[in-house]
Sequence to fold (422 residues):
Amino acid sequence: MSALPRAAELGLIGCHVCGLTCRTVPGDDRLDGGGHGEEMACPRCGSVLHRRKPNSYARTWALLIAGFLLYIPANVLPIMRTASLNDIDDNTIISGVVELWVKGSPDLAVIVFTASIVVPMLKFLSMGLLLLSSQRGSGWARPQRAKLYRLVEFIGYWSMLDVFVVALLTALVRFSLLSRVEPLPGVIFFGLTVVLTMLASMSFDPRLIWDGRDTDD
Amino acid sequence: MSTTSPEALLICEHCDTVYRRRTLERGEVARCARCHAELERHHALSVNALLALILTAMIVFVQANMWPIVTLGLSGQYSGTTLWGMIITMWQQQAQVVAVLAAFTLFFFPMAKMLSLGWLLWFARRGRRAPGFVPLMVGLHYLGPWTMSEVFVLGALVAIVKAHNYFDVVADPGIYAYAALTLLITIFAGVDLRQLWELTPEDPA
Fold:
């Protein structure tokens, strides 16, 4: 037994929902998330016990790829229309950032750019990296990869920022002919991208980073 | 191993490493030696303090939803909105997906979170498990990151700055209520609600 024993080696499972330590028969493959036969339930909260989140790789890949596909129209299509008497102006995510920058709020432009462009891209790249390296059982930079996952989980939902900005401006700028703001399809795609990437990072099991060939001491 | 009770062990949620639990000092945070994730932290706030904060959050939440958030002015016309005004407008403007997302992440989920926490803490004060304790605790776990009031506050700030170039902007009381709510949410973010499982003894079945 190594200095830092892992639950699976001791025949234990930590409930994913309530955190209770549960005892199992070591090597009982019913609890490996394979889904054969009867499942074991946590005695405290009644949730189904898994050593690892079930089908973590397949689910995470599917959600991540779906999120990425929707992220393309989210950026290409305009998210918001500003209409006034003599002018109709369609804004994409990036043109909204440029407008903020030019109109004298570079600090907010940086925040919106981070939330709408940097965070989603970081999520796609990081989750892709985590999936590939864990599927290969790589021992490379494990603590850093674990930290990267926690970062992705923590910042994920801030991407919803631009969706709320468009919604609020639509509700506020309602001056009949003089000035109006309308949401355009891009914002819907963007909202769905955020939800899908959040679901993707939730389906990934960070324990998988530490599985595979044991190269740490 | 057979002499160890399940409560005496702690399993890191991020890498599955098993630890023997020990009592934490004030302000102490236990971290996993393998992956450096947080295992457990000292509970600085008592159940009573948490209940007081939840009740405050509920009052502020009602105000944040009733009062208008911002009003814009353009050549003598004024236009303001509340959260629900925003949700309804998005629905009418063919952005039903956004309307539903906003309704859940800014209204239904935060409300469900506060009501269930208030209910659980009210009973936990007297060391008891509230009726429906287990399903509510499981529900709270799944609600996790799906409440986004704090993101909305930042969004409102960005919207105000964007509108400021073309309109007269009046910040309404709703935005201050939201700011206060964000502060309370931040305090709650550091609280591990799993402590409620251990604070309250299981009812004899």
In short: Helices of chain A lie at 7-10, 56-76, 93-102, 106-135, 142-155, 161-172, 185-203. Residues 1-51 of chain A form one domain. Chain A touches chain B through 73 residues (CB under 8 Å). Residues 33-37 of chain A have pLDDT under 50 and may be disordered.
